[in-house]
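look at this:
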Amino acid sequence: MTAPTGRRERKKAATRQKIAETALRLFLERGYDAVGIREVAAEADVAVTTLFSHFASKEALVFEQDANFEQGLMRAVTERPAGDPLIPALCREVHAMVRHCTAEGAAPIWRMIDGSPALREYEDAMRLRHAESLATAIAADPESARSATACRTIARFVLDAYSIGREAADPEAAVDEIFRMIEAAWEVTAAC
């Protein structure tokens, strides 16, 4: 996502960041289920309505990078240079996502997510939404020329590569291995 340019946009971005950081700190200190929205808003020194103008739900506070990840996947398809193959472009984007989500300090966040049914459900829904958006972008790509089923399948494989890679002992190697399979599947769909 590009950096906000105007004063108002920078202020909104700073408020959003402050809310997200406050929420995450409280969730990690006291547990996701033990912290309410009103507590997050009070600690961040914003009104509850301001919090909800930036985040649609309590779960969205944890997945603050949701929109950036989805946009990154879309840009990997739509903004790649002409002639740049699709699958390697998506592989580079998934590597970036996995690096972000496996960075130092991320493990406690993932333990919190894994320990909360509400957060796991939100993550699953988010991943499906990202896959549908990605499938739409792939299908619209003039260089793709694949069926809607092939585009949706590859998009889901890409999101699964992110999930599996993030959890692997060697995330980079896992993503590379999965993308070799995705590349092979993509090539097979060209013959259909």
